[in-house]
Structures
1.
Amino acid sequence: MNKVLLVDDETMLLDSLEIILSLNNMEIVGKAHDGNEALAILKDTSCELALVDLNMKGMGGIELIGHMKKLYPSIKILVLTTFYDDKNITDAISNGADGYLLKDSGKDAILGAVGQIMGGNTVLDQKVMQRLSSLVAANMNKSAGTGAADSSAVKSVEGAENDKVSILDAAYGELTEREKEIAGLIADGLSNRQIADKLYISEGTVKNYISSIYDKTGIHDRVKLAVALK
């Protein structure tokens, strides 16, 4: 049973998430309304996953993520927010968030993201992936003209952008048609479960295809692969 910490300044949302996750074999170790309260809870208990909002009174989510990754590096962090502007996305990823989901994604998407993150995968909402891809492209164009980059989060993925030509021209050509299809769905921000449902195959089969894609492209990170294939 995974132990989960919930951090959000909306009490009703905290209660809803507690019900949803508790009914899906997860133990809620605490509910915090801001970052300071979350860190206080973690002094007395441990967890494997934290669902964190960004815009909260007191210590906000971005600052909390940085503290948590420094103090408790093994804890997985899923951002659950209504905001997907460039600054929030890049700051959250730069500080160590393992996933970034919008609150309107729905119960199934949240449960799917939790499962993916606990399985060691990075999960980004499709809208977030689109913003990040656009940001990377804009940054690469700017870097070509100035030789400088602005965001550490962009720097963390622009290596994949630099590899884009080689991926598409060489390794991408080695993928089977099914692998190309799945790679495209990853680039669109779909989770393994969503891909499995869309293609009418098992989630285990999707994982096998993704492992093969990783081996052929040489990129073993979902976010970098998605950005490179955009």
Note: The longest helix spans residues 126-146.
2.
Amino acid sequence: MRRNRVCILSVLTFLFGILFFLPADHAMANSDSVTISPNASNATVTVTVTDADLSGKEISVVCYEPGKTGAVSDLTANKNFIVYINQYTGGQTSSFSFPIRKQLIKGDYTLVITSEKEQIVKTFQMVSDTAAPPSVTQTAKPAAPDPKKDSAKKKLKAPAGVKAKAKGKKKIQVTWKKVSGAKGYIISTATKKNGKYKTKLTVKGGSKKKATLKKMKSGKVYYVKVKAYQLSGKKKIAGKWSKAVKVKVR
């Protein structure tokens, strides 16, 4: 009789073990006490368990990739799971994350949580089965025109009414009509009309209309050109050259 009782207890213990470690397909599904938050951008999954009865208890988590399952009771032999975690819950709510170590694929990942209380099975997706709608690229509105910048894009016209005359010894006085939008003027000279012109003087101020060139060579004939400039930041943007005018230095 006593031996029969021992046999019955052994059988019951064995059956209880089978029930406890049943494959995931036979466990409770879609429990409200488990929330899964997959993050495809960094290939991690966050699991939150909200169950006061599991406070301070040990829970085991197994995650299978799509199309793979296995017996939870044989984790050593089973190679189809992605990650296995032993987690002691610290309170009514326990939240923890783990990485998906293999390449993300479409389909349902299976999460199996086993505790002293029950076994819970839930599924989630890391990559949507349906193609994401094409992203809409919004064209930025063109910036409002800046009068100062736009004016710098237009090349200044050549100064009109350019005249040059000898004034005193070794000096040339140059006059011109001001150019709209100019910030200053550049005066260049050459000893031949179609020769190489070199900058002799830079005049700041768009309203200026005359300047005097000094230290010129006495008795020498010079050809004089003037052009206006504007500013783009600190850079000078020169306009068109005026016609060359001839003058002989005293």
Note: The chain is about 10% helix and 40% strand.
3.
Amino acid sequence: MAKLGKRTLKAREGIEAGKVYDVAEAVKAIKERATAKFDETVEVAMNLGVDPRHADQMVRGVCNLPNGSGRSVRVAVFAKDDKAEEAKAAGADVVGAEDLVEQVQKGQINFDRCIASPDMMPLVGRLGKVLGPRGMMPNPKVGTVTPDVAGAVKAAKGGAVEFRVEKAGIIHAGVGKASFNDDALIGNIKAFVDAVLKAKPTGSKGTYVKKVSLSSTMGPGITVDVASMSGQTG
């Protein structure tokens, strides 16, 4: 087993192994240990009792973080004519149609989120092999294929976080920065957990949320009591 560095050992001081923390306690502990030279991202990881290989156990959706994500998100929009102008006016970083498809096919992906107007999907569909593995393919289920491109751009810029369960039944996402105050982080965490709970699939049997942990980019993970984050459990 690799020896832990001094910084890692120090960060783990005071965190009881096996203890389940209240969300407010966990946020306080994470902020105290976020001592890197940059503003660390606070991340939530949820272990779900689902097998995403089955279509009726797939969990995906989008959560609008009430206090923003704290990161600047570069947004690309596939649109033409009036929709392209609406996207630009809303603050999209990259807007295009066939030209943007060609750029992406060449591997020129200088954006973090991708939105498309519905009429562009026959074109954008060609990019499944490029955008799909990156989790960036526009999808109507998460509001990234929409006639309201301006609204989608503003949501993405304002802190909309997409989530999708991975093979092992885990969902994780950044829900703010260590520089946020406690209440802002707790508000974002609760909103995210609620969004995942509301996305519970029909095929989920038994315990849906098995474990939730919080961490900062460089800090240790802290297990959090699900009930302290939401009125719902299951």
Note: The two ends are 36 Å apart (CA to CA).
4.
Amino acid sequence: MGKIILLRHGESQWNLENRFTGWTDVDLSDRGRMEAAEAGRKIAAAGLEPAYFFTSYLRRAIHTLQIAAAEMDRDWVPVVKDWHLNERHYGALQGLNKADTAARYGDEQVHIWRRSYDVEPPALEKNDSRNPANEARYATLTDDELPLTESLKTTIERVRPCWEELIAPAVRLYGTVLVAAHGNSLRALAMMLLHLSPEEVMKLEIPTGSPWLMETDAHLNVVKNYYL
């Protein structure tokens, strides 16, 4: 039986400031670091020993993993960092305060951008300094691979290859893995694992710093899932 631990990063500085974050590389807040440490303690207390770690290219997820791994005394476990596990790209909304954005565009429009399955926020212009093509970490990716905005639907499509080609084979080989990522990339994994409909996944809320355990059978069908 396989075990997949989904761990949303601890509170980030922009979570605290109520800003759209997306692919912006914001670090954890003090509370976020405490949440990450507590997550590691919960995983260890449950007797779980992840043999492989996965995370995104964004430091709030990377640092959450590092802190949790130290609490588990498993700093030595191999880590795969994959940009496919990045948060949903919020386009031109990234960096904006959510309340100010609602005041500017209206609550209904912002709600549509945030909670619709296939509606994308306004895209970044290619010459925008926030374009991920400007960052060294994405230098090997093509323009077609790098988003300027994303819906939840396109985020799920982006995450799927990581699940099929990296995470699922690791579960089969090692038994227990941990994925430290983001609210929407973890929603994508949950949709695949739990066979959720678009309506169900839109309503799914994943709290920061709370390990969510998926227990699977030999075919990676989830037989039980719960928060530690």
Note: Residues 152-174 form the longest helix (23 residues).
